[in-house]
């Protein structure tokens, strides 16, 4: 799988951001708290929905905003896909307004159907497995460095 483009509106610290990922290695660097992890979390959220978030749906929406949307373009097994997820605040709750996956075989609509297709058909792994193979969370590097050989893989 290759992420090709990520567009964010009101997702965590990102008011309006559009990133294109070129071929090769992409390095994301910055000060602590600058939003590096939020970019990866946005990709995971696009793929798996709320199960991929470190917090709640409310935490995903930029403070003061009533809605957010995340669009992720990616290539998998030589085929192009685009996932769109939109959240909207209504009173004290936040819910999914729109969730679609555009792929070579058509459009899949609905948060549950998109999550199931991504996890069961496309990537064949749940959100936790994908996250664990994709990156190391903040604070986990020291745990791995200091772990005994027998416990490092746990």
CATH architecture: 3-Layer(aba) Sandwich
Query: Which parts are unreliable, with pLDDT below 50 for 5 consecutive residues or more?
Result: none
Q: Number of folding domains?
A: 1
By secondary-structure content and strand pairing, the structural class works out as alpha+beta
Task: Let me know the CATH homologous superfamily.
Answer: P-loop containing nucleotide triphosphate hydrolases
The CATH class label is Alpha Beta
Biggest sheet architecture:
6 strands, antiparallel
**What is the distance, rounded to the nearest whole angstrom, between the alpha carbons of the first and last residues?**
25 Å
Percent range for helical residues? 25-40%
Q: Output mean pLDDT.
A: 87
In total, the number of strands is: 6
What are the secondary-structure elements, in order, as H or E?
Answer: EEHHEEEEHHH
The tally of helices reads 5
Overall geometric form: globular
As a whole number of angstroms, the C-alpha radius of gyration is 16 Å
What name is given to the CATH topology? Rossmann fold
Strand content: 35-45%
Strands side by side in the biggest sheet = 2-1-3-4-5-6
